[in-house]
């Protein structure tokens, strides 16, 4: 079986600000990542995706970049970064950088120049208009901001401080491609490419269909517009072609049937993060207080559609820095979280594609609900809170939705041990540590053979050496059932099967298929003739 390096092992995602602080600043840094490379290696991954570490005012925690070719002093230096690449490489791990090319920070010198007048050399590097439209930014509020200096509005799909670049301008594209090549020449193993679906803007800037408040999400007006693939093929030609790298792009709104135009032979990227399985609660756009209840059959359909559409060129993920913790999202209230974490791991490592582990997921971490909106740092949590309040919800109701869906749920400091601040920092951490850190931490879980951490390690190692899991065909069984997720992976005459009970009660085994099957892994230590609450079993049939 001919597989690329990024198909053979998983990826570990690091949110450096919350990983490990080695300077006593309260925020994590690159040396912290360097210190924990052996821990990361123990998870059997072949790459680390680092969320942005470039110089940034940190309005959106680094997704507002002020210089594409340097490291923010909060995180360290270029020399630290080079050392990280080298030390990771010595462990057969590559570093994947996060490219944020839809927008910059409003402090980026390009924007600082662009806003000075309508005729400066960079006047056309951003999206400027005399009249705003009714577009609502993804973080809430108008997507247009009035610039006094230039007497025009500029477009920002995300925060006010994140002006959108004008990809129609060839100089902009050149400058971005140069920045990407700068990191490849330094030895990075590839890119996770942020918010890429928004780079193409419509030919006409007109009002969109209005929601009850008169606004229309910018997402509905600009996501994946015709013509975007021309830009992306140029990007590929100028940056990716001829290099042994891994590219995975964030593409909310590209549907499974469109995936072939985006990934693999004839496509642009190696893989694409599409959102259908993580956004099934938001069929009408991600407004948290309008969330629909989680429906297992929808979740399974989304996963199965992607599996079929991509033939394995697929990042399997249940968590990242933008999503709440999975054990609290995909299972009913009252679920045992350790069982849930192991059940998800079983799916993560046995679906076809590249498994992505988000820091802390391997410890089974859950959501951290803060008691006041003022405790939230995440800019989108504040936007969602305001939106809910404007829709007539009380403070308390609005806060409940933030507690459930906030991005800060996954951004609390990594839990290394049971010492103060979970061993993350010797100072005041930038975001509170989850209160469960005395139980859920890497040191304690390392010692416990039955921990979530050791379950991850075992499954990851198994997956990396199993031809059936690396390349076998995927088939879903009983897709309509709302209680269990069962699928098989087949290569030649071997079939492996994953079965997970998503309920908090016993379920009879769907007859026959398991007769004579051999259990390889499970999240219960013993066997039963019932499928127990949250039970996950991985069989050879
Ligand atoms: C997606 C990133 O994952 C998210 O954290 C960020 O806020 C937006 N893109 C804007 O860059």
CATH topology of the largest domain: TIM Barrel
The count of helical stretches stands at 16
Alpha carbon gap, first and last residue: 22 Å
Uncertain spans, ≥5 residues at pLDDT below 50?
A: none
Determine Rg (CA atoms, Å). 23 Å
Largest sheet: 8 strands, parallel
CATH class of the largest domain: Alpha Beta
Helix content: 25-40%
Percent strand equals: 15-25%
Silhouette: globular
Mean pLDDT, rounded to whole units? 95
Number of E-state strands: 20
Helix vs. strand class: alpha/beta
Number of domains: 2
**Assigned CATH superfamily of the largest domain:** Glycosidases
Strand order in the largest sheet: 11-10-8-3-2-1-13-12
CATH architecture of the largest domain: Alpha-Beta Barrel
């Amino acid at each position: 079986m001919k597989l690329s390096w990024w198909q053979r092992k998983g990826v570990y995602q690091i949110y450096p600000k919350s990983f490990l602080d080695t300077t006593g600043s309260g925020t994590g840094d690159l040396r912290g990542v360097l210190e924990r490379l052996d821990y990361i290696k123990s998870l059997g991954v072949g790459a680390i995706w680092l969320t942005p570490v470039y110089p940034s005012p940190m309005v959106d925690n680094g997704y507002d970049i002020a210089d594409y070719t340097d490291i923010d002093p909060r995180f360290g230096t270029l020399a630290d970064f080079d050392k990280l690449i080298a030390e990771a490489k010595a462990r057969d791990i590559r570093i994947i950088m996060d490219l944020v090319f839809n927008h910059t920070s409003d402090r980026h010198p390009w924007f600082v120049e662009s806003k000075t007048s309508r005729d400066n050399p960079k006047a056309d590097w951003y999206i400027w208009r005399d009249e705003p439209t009714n577009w609502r930014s993804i973080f809430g509020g108008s997507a247009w901001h009035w610039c006094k200096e230039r007497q025009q509005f500029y477009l920002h799909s995300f925060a006010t401080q994140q002006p959108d670049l004008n990809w129609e301008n060839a100089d902009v594209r050149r400058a971005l491609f140069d920045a990407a090549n700068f990191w490849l020449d330094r030895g990075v193993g590839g890119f996770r490419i942020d918010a890429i679906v928004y780079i193409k803007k419509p030919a006409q800037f007109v009002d969109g269909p209005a929601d009850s408040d008169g606004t229309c999400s910018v997402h509905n007006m600009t996501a994946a517009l015709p013509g975007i693939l021309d830009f992306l093929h140029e990007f590929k030609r100028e940056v990716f072609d001829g290099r042994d790298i891994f590219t995975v792009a964030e593409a909310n709104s590209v549907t499974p049937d469109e995936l072939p135009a985006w990934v693999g032979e004839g496509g642009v990227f190696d893989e694409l993060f599409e959102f259908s399985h993580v956004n099934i609660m938001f069929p009408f756009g991600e407004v948290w207080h309008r969330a629909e209840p989680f429906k297992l059959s929808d979740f399974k359909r989304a996963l199965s559609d992607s599996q079929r559409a991509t033939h394995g060129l697929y990042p399997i993920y249940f968590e990242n820095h933008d999503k709440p913790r999975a054990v609290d999202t995909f299972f009913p209230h009252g679920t045992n979280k350790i069982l849930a974490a192991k059940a998800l791991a079983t799916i993560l490592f046995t679906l076809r594609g590249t498994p992505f582990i988000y820091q802390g997921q391997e410890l089974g971490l859950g959501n951290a609900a803060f008691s006041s909106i003022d405790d939230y740092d995440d800019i989108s949590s504040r936007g969602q809170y305001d939106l809910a309040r404007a829709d007539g919800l009380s403070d308390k109701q609005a806060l409940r939705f933030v507690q459930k869906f906030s991005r800060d749920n996954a951004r609390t400091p990594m839990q290394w041990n049971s010492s103060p601040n979970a061993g993350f920092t010797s100072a005041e951490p930038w975001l509170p540590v989850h209160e469960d850190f005395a139980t859920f931490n890497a040191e304690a879980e390392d010692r416990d053979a039955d921990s979530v951490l050791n379950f991850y390690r075992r499954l990851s190692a198994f997956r990396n050496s199993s031809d059936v899991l690396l390349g076998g065909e995927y088939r879903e069984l009983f897709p309509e059932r709302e209680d269990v997720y069962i699928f098989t992976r087949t290569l030649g005459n071997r079939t492996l099967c994953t079965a997970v009970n998503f309920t908090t009660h016993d379920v009879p085994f769907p007859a026959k298929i398991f007769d004579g099957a051999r259990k390889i892994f499970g999240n219960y230590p013993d066997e039963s003739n019932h499928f127990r609450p949250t039970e996950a079993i991985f069989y050879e049939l």
